[in-house]
Structures are given as structure tokens and as C-alpha cells.
Design brief:
alpha/beta, 576 residues, globular, five-stranded parallel beta sheet, 26 helices, Rossmann fold, 4 domains, five-stranded mixed beta sheet
């Protein structure tokens, strides 16, 4: 039976029931059992909720009869631990707590959500409890939790409680980024409902009524500010053995594509091109060390495959619109100082790297650090917008994020990318000419740039903004590679004709060179019109093309060098 690509589905049981594709991460259940009270943070849309639902199915005593159906095809199903289906499971998702109104309003919503989940646990296990536990729906969540834990603690024959908290920081983060400092301080005060709830969890672990507490989230702020109430947390976010617990490795993506190509009978000759697109747009995350294997954003891979299996071609839109909402974090964090916003976005757009202090990339930090300009790189690392380049710099992980930041750069500097581009883009589709295409970009896009930007521009800036603009208008026919690796180095930019469109087999390799106005005058002492193609640049791009020819001997390869001279002009040379 053909499997389904269930994009956006975080219900593990539903994935099994509907025969959905599933990358088996169940071997991490063994590792998690060796850690008390683990806290694991990852960016949004990295599969945290699916992991939580999987743990719920594995540990819930009420799903014991379904164990083979749910896990028989997995590693843990063939190597179960003694704790399988051994507990009552309380799964809480704090993202459903709406942080509006007064602290009392927030508390009421928190209590209601927690109480509903606890009532479900009690109702499911009514035969064990003999009506000894009554969840008071309008009561405090911590008091109801204490009642349940007291019942468990007093009866050795009862299963213990396994607590899973998904998105523990969601509603609190919204208070922080909305600069509702007073509400946040009240929420994390010693006598607050949230701190009391975590104190109750801690007490339950100490008495043994709670078997373990697994917590996920995005940012490590709240746990730090509640440390006195929940100082038993073990942060595993930056531990090497858990780096690949969420996100896909290259091997996992390869296996997934093997299945998809087989099940949907997709032409095998398209495989390399499709795999390159996925890697360029969704790979590149290094959470623990820059030397390790990068990870793919798993949800975005499934987004691509969902559309790919339906359309049988590379989708025109490669960026999930839900991902663009992450820019709201940039706005929120930097709202107090627009100049800081511009500096942060400009630096990443211009150079795709930003300095960071590795000592600040820690498991937890407080609210005041979060808004410190020096801490922005670390904040955006946790938000999934930046990743490790090395021990000194963070960078944007992939083309998806590069495109999103260029869009924001355009918004900040009020650069129009919607009008006056259609004519020359359409001419290019009718008759491809790179010099005319770049001339249109220069005349319509570069001409809008603020003068101050030209003091900072470089090869990366021209390459990235040119690529982003082309992707807006030409993505029906092309995909692009940025810094593709070859034995003799990395190419700057490549146009690749989609295999099912009119430019199939076309591959243009483009090398960008930049000289400031001063550098150009000093080094060449000539005009832009009389400037000649440089021999060393010809040799450099020839090395890339040699590697590309070996890899794609059937491709129609052209090579170009584009020289940009400050804000004065450009030259495009076709290399013979």
C-alpha cells in the first residue's frame, strides 16, 4: 500500500493509522530514559510535538494492546525497554494558553487547559482510582495535580505518572516579545501559578509519584527564571548524543527519497536534481558543533515532498509561508531600536555571517539578556534562523533563510521588488541572456539601494539579492544553487533548468567578483567599458565547470563571470 506524505501532522498515532512516511527516531527513547527531567529545545517546525505524541503512545499503559500496531515497524518496537506502556501519561501543550488580559485571565486559561488534560487521565484510569480523585475544573491546576500525585504516592499498585510538556515557553515568550515585562515578572514570581505548578512537578519527582518529566520548547528563558522552582531540569539541547533526535540526517533523507521515488513511480533520472534542491533549501543546521553532520528541517522536507508527490515536479514555491512568520521575532526583539534591526538584517544579508560569543550559547538565559544586542545571535540561533558556521561566527543555514532575510532587507530599506521587473524577466524566458537579465536587476533593484549600503556591499550581497529577485519571477523554469561544492572549491551561483520545463539540461555557472570604486581605480586604471576578463577568474570558474561536467556530462553548461564595481556599474563575461 502506497504511503502518504502527511505534512504538518504531529499526531503519531494518525501517521501510523494513515500509513504515513515516518523517519524512525525511536532509538532515542532508550537514551531519554537515561536522563532525569530532560529539557530539549529546538526551533519551531522541527517536529517537537510529534516526538511528544510518540512518547505518549509509547509510555501510556492504556495503549498497551496497540503496541505492536504502533511500534512494531520501529527500532523501539523490536527493542522495547522495560518501561514501555508502564505509566499514566499527562501530555500538556502550553501553546494553547492565550497570554492576553491580566495575570488572572492567563491563570484561568492555564488552569482550564491543564485540568482538562488531567481529567482525561483520571477518566481513562477510573477503574484504578475507584473515584478517589476528583479533578475540580474551576480549581487551580497545581492543586489538582497535587491531588492526583497524592493518590499515586499512597498506592504502590498504581502506575506512576509520566509528564510531557510541549511548548513549555510558548505563551510566556509572547509576553516577553510583547515587552509585557510586568506580567512576565508576575508570572515567574515565587508565588505565581506557573512557578507553583513546576514546584509541584519537582515534588512529584522527589516522592516518586512522577516517573519522569520531559519538556520541549524553543527558548531557554522561562526555565532559567523559574530555576528556584524547578532546579532539577537536565538540559540536553546542546549534548552531542541528542543533536539528531529531531531534524533529518542525510542518510534519513536519502532513505525517505528512496521510498517516495519507489512508491510514486517517479522518474529516477530526476533524483539528483530533486535531492540538490532539498539540500540547498532545508539542510544546514548545526546545533552542537559546526564540524558535525548538518541537519535538515524535517517539517520543511515533508512540506516539499507533499507537493512533489502531488505535482510530480519541483514545486514553484519552495518556502513554506508558515516559516516566514518567524520574521515576527526579528521585529519583536528589535522593536525598541529600529537601527539595531537594520544593522542585524543588513549584516546577514551582506555577508551571511555574524559574530557570537560561544560562552553565551548556553542552555539557559534570562529575559534581560534576550533583548541585549550582543545576545541577538544566540537568540536567533535558538529560533532556528542562524546556525553555527564555526567557533566564531553564526550564519543563515540555507537558501530558505537567505531568501527570507533578503525579503526583510528589502522591506526595511523600502526596495520595490514587485513592479518594473516583468518586461525584462519575460524577455529572459523567451530568450535567455544573462547580461540583459543582470542589467535589469542593476537598473531596477540596485538603483534603489541607499547610499550607505554601498559602503558595505560585497560579492555575497550581489549574488544573494540577484538570486532572490530571480527566484520571484523565474522559479517556474529554474532552481538555483548557491556555493555548490566541487573538488576545486565552491561556485557562487548556478542557474539550473528544471527537468520538466523548457530549459531542462541547462546549467549556468556564475562567478561574482566585487571591487569598490577605490579598489577598481587603484588596481586597473581603466574604465568599466574597457575592463577585461581576468585570467585568474577564468581559471577559477573552469575548475568548477570541470567538476560539474564530470557529474553531469549530458548537461548544457555555460560559464560566466560577473564583475560589480561599487555602485558604478558591472560587466558580464561569457567564458568560452
Amino acid at each position: 500500500m502506497k504511503k502518504q506524505v502527511l505534512y504538518g501532522t504531529s499526531n503519531y498515532e494518525e501517521i501510523v493509522r494513515k500509513n504515513g512516511y515516518f523517519v524512525d527516531k525511536t532509538n532515542y527513547i532508550e537514551k531519554l530514559e537515561q536522563t532525569s527531567n530532560p529539557v530539549f529545545l529546538r526551533p519551531r517546525r522541527f517536529g517537537k510535538s510529534l516526538l511528544c505524541r510518540m512518547l505518549e503512545c509509547y509510555y501510556d499503559i492504556n495503549q498497551q494492546a496497540d503496541f505492536e500496531r504502533l511500534f512494531g515497524h520501529t527500532y523501539i518496537g523490536q527493542n522495547p525497554t522495560p518501561s514501555r506502556n508502564a505509566f499514566w501519561v499527562l501530555l500538556l501543550n502550553f501553546s494553547t494558553v492565550k497570554p492576553t488580559g491580566t495575570l488572572i485571565d492567563i491563570e484561568k486559561r492555564f488552569d482550564l487547559i491543564c485540568n482538562l488534560r488531567m481529567k482525561t487521565v483520571v477518566d481513562r484510569n477510573a477503574s484504578w482510582l475507584n473515584d478517589q480523585v476528583n479533578i475540580i475544573m474551576n480549581g487551580e491546576a497545581s492543586a489538582n495535580l497535587q491531588t492526583l500525585l497524592n493518590a499515586i504516592e499512597g498506592h504502590d499498585e498504581l502506575p506512576r505518572l509520566y509528564v510531557i510538556i510541549d511548548e513549555y515557553d510558548n505563551f510566556v515568550n509572547q509576553l516577553i516579545t510583547a515587552h509585557k515585562d510586568r506580567l512576565y515578572r508576575e508570572l515567574t514570581a515565587d508565588d505565581s501559578f506557573l512557578k507553583t505548578f513546576f514546584k509541584t512537578l519537582k515534588e512529584g519527582r522527589e516522592t516518586g509519584a512522577i516517573a519522569n518529566v520531559f519538556v520541549t520548547g524553543v527558548l531557554p528563558i522561562t526555565i532559567d527564571d523559574m530555576a528556584s522552582g524547578y532546579n532539577i531540569a537536565n538540559f540536553i539541547t546542546l549534548q552531542p548524543e541528542f543533536e539528531s533526535m529531531l531534524g533529518f540526517t542525510q542518510t534519513e533523507v536519502d532513505h525517505l527519497l528512496d521510498q517516495v521515488y519507489h512508491d510514486y513511480e517517479i522518474e529516477p533520472s530526476t533524483r539528483r536534481e530533486v535531492q540538490a534542491v532539498i539540500k540547498n533549501h532545508y539542510d544546514g543546521y548545526h546545533f552542537v558543533t559546526s564540524e558535525g553532520e548538518p541537519l535538515y528541517n524535517s517539517t520543511l522536507v515533508m512540506y516539499f515532498l507533499n507537493r512533489f508527490t502531488k505535482e510530480k515536479t519541483i514545486p514553484k514555491q519552495l518556502t513554506d509561508l508558515n516559516l516566514k512568520t518567524e520574521l515576527s521575532w526579528v521585529r519583536r526583539l528589535t522593536a525598541a531600536n529600529p537601527q539595531q534591526t537594520a544593522e542585524f538584517v543588513d549584516q546577514l544579508t551582506l555577508s551571511n555571517q555574524i559574530e557570537y560569543d560561544d560562552r553565551l550559547l548556553v542552555d539557559k538565559f534570562n529575559m534581560f539578556q534576550f533583548f541585549d544586542k550582543r545576545f541577538f545571535p544566540v537568540s536567533f540561533f535558538y529560533l532556528g534562523m542562524l546556525t553555527r558556521q564555526d567557533d566564531f561566527y553564526l550564519k543563515l543555514p540555507n537558501l530558505n533563510m537567505q531568501q527570507i532575510f533578503v525579503e526583510y532587507f528589502n522591506e526595511i530599506h523600502r526596495i520595490d521588488v514587485s513592479t518594473h521587473y516583468t518586461a525584462f524577466m519575460q524577455r529572459f524566458v523567451n530568450e535567455p541572456n544573462l547580461e540583459e537579465l543582470f542589467a535589469g536587476y542593476w537598473e531596477q533593484y540596485v538603483s534603489q539601494l541607499p547610499e550607505a549600503i554601498f559602503q558595505q556591499v560585497n560579492e555575497n550581497f550581489y549574488r544573494t539579492t540577484f538570486f532572490e529577485l530571480c527566484s520571484r519571477y523565474l522559479s517556474r523554469w529554474f532552481v538555483w544553487h548557491v556555493e555548490r561544492s566541487y573538488p576545486q572549491g565552491k561556485s557562487d551561483l548556478e542557474f539550473v533548468g528544471k527537468y520538466n520545463e523548457k530549459f531542462a539540461g541547462l546549467r549556468w555557472v556564475i562567478e561574482f567578483k566585487y571591487y569598490s570604486n577605490t579598489e577598481f581605480r587603484k588596481k586597473f586604471k581603466t574604465s568599466i567599458e574597457q575592463f577585461k576578463l581576468q585570467d585568474e577568474d577564468t581559471a577559477q570558474i573552469a575548475g568548477y565547470v570541470e567538476g560539474l561536467t564530470e557529474e553531469y556530462p549530458e548537461a548544457h553548461i555555460s560559464q560566466f563571470v560577473i564583475y560589480c564595481f561599487g555602485n558604478q556599474g558591472f560587466r558580464v563575461f561569457a567564458v568560452k
